[in-house]
Design goal:
single chain, globular, 2 helices, mainly beta, Fructose-1,6-Bisphosphatase, Chain A, domain 1, eight-stranded mixed β-sheet
Length: 144
């Protein structure tokens, strides 16, 4: 990992892995055809993704990238909004999905499933000769 000679709008030094992950995520959001716009920690201004899209996605491409050289877990954080403009919108009024992906010795995805109204944990596992996402906790809850 190399720190590039730029800072994001929050003052954080950007690494090549932050910028590359940002580009990969933006490219994949565009390929869905349902995302109107997006903003990330690396590029927090509005980025039009598809004029026919109906959702707005906010994300941090690699949270924890400053410790990636130490072999600590890092992750990606996503918010999915049912609006084309999130300016002044409260999460409870338009946030329809959220996800956290954690990359480390175990690759895990935690998502809110609107159909079941549950938070689910999925783990990337080797099944035979293929890697598959397996639901490892269909109802993830935090203790009170």
């Amino acid at each position: 990992m190399h720190l590039v000679q730029s800072r994001n709008e929050f003052g954080k030094l950007q690494s090549d892995i932050d910028l590359e992950a940002n580009e990969i995520i933006m490219r994949n959001l565009k390929s869905t055809g349902v995302i109107f716009g997006a903003a990330s920690e690396e590029c927090p201004k509005f980025n039009e993704v598809s004029e026919d899209g109906e959702y707005f996605v906010t994300f941090d491409p690699i949270d924890g990238s400053s410790v990636i050289d130490c072999n600590f877990s890092v992750g990606s954080i996503y918010g999915i909004w049912n609006t084309k403009d999130i300016q002044g919108i409260k999460a409870r009024d338009a946030l329809v999905g959220a996800a956290v992906a954690i990359y480390g010795t175990r690759t895990t995805l935690i998502i809110y499933n609107a159909q079941s109204d549950q938070v689910e944990e999925l783990t990337l596992m080797q099944v035979g000769n293929k890697k598959k996402w397996i639901v490892t906790n269909p109802k993830l809850e935090l203790a009170a």
